[in-house]
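Q: Hi! New to this. If I give you a protein sequence and the SMILES for zinc ion, can you show me the bound structure?
A: Yes, paste them in.
Q: Okay, here:
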Amino acid sequence: MTAPLDPPAVFAEFIARVACYDPAPEGGPAAVLGLRTALGEATFQVSDHVVRAMCRALEAYRDPADRGTCTGCGSRRLDENLHCGDCGRLHGILGQVIAEHARRVAEGQPFGPPA
Ligand SMILES: [Zn+2]
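A: Thanks. Here is the predicted structure of the protein with zinc ion bound:
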């Protein structure tokens, strides 16, 4: 169950929250964003600073159902038990520990607690 969203209000709130930190507020709008929903439509003129902030926010978003990729087949369809819906491989704590170990080896990081 997801709470109802008012996208134009969320956009406006985000823009207000970010625009006050614009280092070049006199620069004028860099983009015009139009948003049309069942409730209506809204247009936002946003500066380069705000566009960059929106891009960063979008890049940082992870879907709540995103449990990573299957190490067996690369599928993104891992269920809540980390069971791959495509190849059937079972991931989990041990699988994560092994994957983390492999990642550290690949990055050449030291093991154990920091010195
Ligand atoms: Zn798989």
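A: The beta strands are 31-37, 40-46. Let me know if you'd like me to explain how to read the tokens.
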